[in-house]
Amino acid sequence: MVSIVLRTLSNQSRCSLLRRGEVCRRRVTAPLVSPSLLHAAAAPRATMSTPATPTADHSEPGVFSTIADFRRARRSLPHDASVGFVPTMGALHEGHLDLFRRARRECDIVVGSVFVNPAQFAPHEDLDRYPRQLEQDLELLGGEGLVDLVFAPTREEMYSPDHRIYVDPLGFDDLPEGVARPGFFRGVATVVTKLLNVVQPDLAFFGQKDALQCVLVKRLVEDLNMPVTVVVSETTREADGLAMSSRNAYMSAEERAAAPAVYLSLRAAADARQREADAGRNASREELVAAAEEVISAQPLITSVDYLSVGSPATMEELEEIGQAGAVVSVAVRLGSVRLIDNVVLPPLAR
Ligand SMILES: Nc1ncnc2c1ncn2[C@@H]1O[C@H](COP(=O)(O)OP(=O)(O)OP(=O)(O)O)[C@@H](O)[C@H]1O
Ligand SMILES: CC(C)(CO)[C@@H](O)C(=O)[O-]
Ligand code: BAL
Asked: Which residues cross the membrane (predicted)?
């Protein structure tokens, strides 16, 4: 009963927010919100009328480029509405949309962010060419009414010229994805901390595709006592198994045709583990890596392998043997000019 009341309230508040969205659609300079309309969203429950059925209004999220404006809108939400947050770097695809859909199912209000975080890019990486297409992203989210508020700050808004404090997650640069991208997890931990401080969600949604990032964010909120629940959602794939990623757009047709080998290599590792489990044995790291390597080495367009890792699901530290607790097999390869990462979760065994 309680949850029905909440859902009712949130539908109403969502519609109020979205009606206000009509006014500010597509403009990303402050101020974007009519405070009076947001105030209406915060009206006490008893004054709320029957919830409006979802309408075309749902296609109009409020978009904010400054922290101050976003906070104003956030403060005006009903205090007991649950807020779900999906942080992204934009260039949205079905993988992102699945995160938003899950947030929509599980929360009263959905907030998204679009920010290409310079702090997580090494100097030689693709910060400048990373796709930026906010208009298109808003169309996609709006089309299904997946989001209520979007925080899309500028670089200067997030990092003033005098920005000095970074969040340094110990040990992450020693794990495979950290070794391949030194400093990356410091950049992610810093921006996720900042985004969570701005958005103040109850739940935050992350994709399993970035497996070590999920482990990092869970540690972050635990170690820094942040009042947010981290939800990890499964990887969304193309029909041929390729994990969806904004960077897939960099691939040539030839590279794209070769790319499913990455997932197939992980499936080969998963099959090897299953064979051992069926025979009542623990699989070894070596067996799994060999099975995956066989598939990768058969694909000539894969020019190098950053890592093939068999890690503990909780910490991503390397395992020698895959016991009952399962494992995460992850891989990062270079395919032409593109770097692809992917992983599969080998579930715990019921014995
Ligand atoms: N295929 C996918 N399935 C599920 N979640 C995904 C998928 N791709 C990205 N995500 C998640 O979406 C969130 C935002 O990711 P991001 O904007 O970096 O997209 P991306 O496609 O991972 O981009 P790139 O790989 O090019 O960095 C992250 O939590 C990420 O794990
Ligand atoms: C979590 C994140 C939005 C932080 O910039 C980014 O690393 C991503 O998109 O996965
Ligand atoms: N999806 C993780 C963000 C990055 O690769 O920079």
From this structure: none
